[in-house]
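Table S2 (text version). Query chain:
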Amino acid sequence: MSEPVRHNERRSRFEIFVDDALAGFAHYHLSNGVATFDHTEVKPEFNGRGLGTTLVAGALDQVRATGAWRVRPVCPFVVTFIKRHPEYADLVVP
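Corresponding structure-token output:
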């Protein structure tokens, strides 16, 4: 079963859940159509499951689906994810 990634606009973050429990999030700041992803966190009890990768992929997929934003990765995890998954490079602002 895949873990859902939900956009929590009020808290400016994408969240991932396991059995309805918040397992982690990717926070961003939105300005002028650019979402600067500055922090990604998975709770320690959920480490080792690949949830960070699922979370960031889900967040970027949702950003792409809306077509309204670009991204600026400053969080090291998001930077590394995009380097390893060049299919998301088109979302990154120079």
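Notes on Table S2: The radius of gyration is 12 Å. DSSP finds two helices and five strands in the chain.
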